[in-house]
Amino acid sequence: MGTHSNRRDGTSLMALAQYFDDFDVGQVFQSAEYQITGEEIAAFARQYDPQPMHTDTDFARRTEFGGLIASGFHTAAVTMRLFVMSDASTAQGTLGVGIDRLRWRAPVRSGDRLRAMFTIETLAPSRRRPGWGTVGTHARARNQNNVEVFDALMLALVPGRDWAATRG
Fold first, then answer.
1. Which pLDDT tens digit goes with each residue over 100-152?
2. Please, what sign has the CA dihedral across residues 99, 130, 122, 90?
3. Do residues 79 and 139 touch, judged by C-beta distance below 8 A?
4. Nearest-10 Cα torsion for 18, 19, 24, 30
5. Which domains does the chain show, CATH number per domain?
6. Nearest to 10 by CA among 114, 115, 85, 84
């Protein structure tokens, strides 16, 4: 992944990187699309969430889901990738400090194409780290049928431009 975005114009992520002072409450960022594969679902689950509805196609067919579904944490990881690859990407990378209101709204299946929308919900200057602030970003991911599959408030510590200028 490196510093390359999936933007059509090929603009590097660091050229687009946002600082704390660049954000406004209510600002919205859209992601590119990401397609989930069955192989990816099973590989992630074997490594991190080895439950049979994620790893065993025959077992999964007999469940209420009728087939293989992605782990919720896989969906969260894909949403994070969509965030990092979007124009909401922050300078110095995203230093996550927490996730609030995490919800998995619907199962994600092989072949699903996910897109995410990121809305800046809160901005708070840091009391402990001068020149930094906490950005609360409401992340919502939807599949190709516009069904919401993921919803969370992601909290990140982000440097301000003045702090970055003294480092650079």
1. 999 999 999 999 999 999 999 999 999 999 999 999 999 999 999 999 999 99
2. negative
3. yes
4. 20
5. 23-165 (3.10.129.10)
6. 85
